[in-house]
């Protein structure tokens, strides 16, 4: 998906990990409610979150990340409707496009 762009090593790695986790989930998931897919679901979600948080280092990184968001309905839905920690995923995603590191999680002073 991102082969048209030369992206930073960190983002390339995050995208590959997300793609691998996504494929593993899709290959294993069934509609049988007796099967437990929690482990591969969590791995997929963790890889997606890491990709969304990975700071962009170049315009090519921004393009690659936007391409993923526009072409994968699950990633798009996560950005539009989910939270990462206590923060809306859209804010995390947009901050990463600006090359900013993820904001520290507010643990309420703990």
Quickly give the structural class: mainly alpha
**How many extended strands?**
2
* Shape verdict: globular
State the distance separating the first and last CA atoms.
41 Å
Helix content: 55-70%
Instruction: List the total number of helices.
Output: 5
Spatial arrangement of strands, main beta sheet: 1-2
**Spatial extent as radius of gyration:** 15 Å
- How are helices and strands ordered from N to C? HHHHEEH
- In percent terms, what proportion of residues is strand? under 5%
Identify low-pLDDT runs: none
The main pleated sheet reads as: 2 strands, antiparallel
Give the averaged pLDDT, no decimals: 87
Task: Tell me what the structure shows.
There is one protein chain. The protein is mainly α. The protein has a two-stranded antiparallel ribbon. The protein contains 5 helices and 2 strands, in the order H-H-H-H-E-E-H. Helix 1 runs antiparallel to helix 2, helix 3 (59-71) crosses helix 4 and helix 4 crosses helix 5. It has helices at residues 9-28, 38-53, 59-71, 73-81, 89-97, and strands at 83-84, 87-88. 61% of the residues lie in helices and 4% in strands.
Quick rundown:
The chain is mostly helical. The protein contains five helices and two strands. The chain has helices at residues 9-28, 38-53, 59-71, 73-81, 89-97, and strands at residues 83-84, 87-88.
Secondary structure blueprint with pairings:
Elements: H1 9-28, H2 38-53, H3 59-71, H4 73-81, E1 83-84, E2 87-88, H5 89-97
Antiparallel strand pairs: 1-2
